[in-house]
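Notes to self after the call with IL:
- keep both proteins in one doc
- input above output, always
- annotate only the second one for now

Protein 1:
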Amino acid sequence: MDEKHGPPLRGRPRRGPGELEASVLTALGSAPGPVTAGWVRKQIDPSLAYTTVVTTLTRLHGKQAVVRRRDGRSYVWRAVFDAAGLAARRMHRILDGERDRGAVLSRFIAELPPDDERLLQLGLDTTTTTKRGPGQLMTAALPGRAPCPARGSGHGGTASGGRATGSVR
């Protein structure tokens, strides 16, 4: 028995947190248009209870990750976000609940593995260029990090050319 999730149901291993929501969003993302809960169930796992799928869709609707509209006596559903978009929304909600966003972001960045730091740097370079326009790149340093003199130059966003020194793991 898994202490965190309890015993598996009917011999199947229990899904991890968020896995069913991610599966539902993936199915909705591949849908030809708005679809029924039954359609989603067939795409994910026909052995799932219909009510499990409807509950998941309803929770995603509450998180504004899906939209629904009446179609007869039931609903048809469409994704607003993919699984990555939903995770990003959760991260935003967490940050919105913190008094010192800068400290949380600084700690998050300091504890990133090098590969994730590179991905974040690439994303920041792309987003910053898009939002601010070319030639107006943001170069301010977060607390505990040296300014990045040449973002996008392959130096990983720190003065030392990679990981910030003194990172907490």
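Protein 2 (the one to annotate):
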Amino acid sequence: MTDPNAPSTAKADTTPATPGSPDAPGSPASLTARLNQAQPYALGLFRIVVGLLFACHSASPLFGVLGGSAVPAGTWPLWYAAVIQLGAGILVLAGLGTRSAAFLASGSMAYAYFKVHQPEALLPIQNGGESAAMFCWAFALLVFTGPGALALDRLFGSGEATTAKAREDRGAPVAA
């Protein structure tokens, strides 16, 4: 019989992790796990920055601020596009109805690119449509990824962000 009060003779495993093992502090698996933990916050920050830039992009022709000149109210299509873009930009910035607002904003920028810029030349660098193309694809990304962290949808407990979070918490797979 062994005495429960006697000191243990088993040695603890003090072998450091080998440099190539997944447990090593600088290993690619460790870095990937840490980046995956930060992904919702990076996506939320991306959404906030893109929404802010888009709201500023549309405020310029609406109000004549930020180096732009105001377009007369009701001018087709620029004034109406700017109103839609300002609303979508603010919604994306706040994280309210992000997927729907991003879909509308992406379509708005696709229309702007193909109707205004693309007839001038084929490539965005040639026709001045870089911002339209970048906004279009950034918002298309948000349509598929959702708002990420720091969205007001999560605060109010409504919308797709809360539904996705509830599915994630239950461990149920998210349907594509």
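Annotation: The mean pLDDT is 84. The first helix runs from residue 28 to 63.
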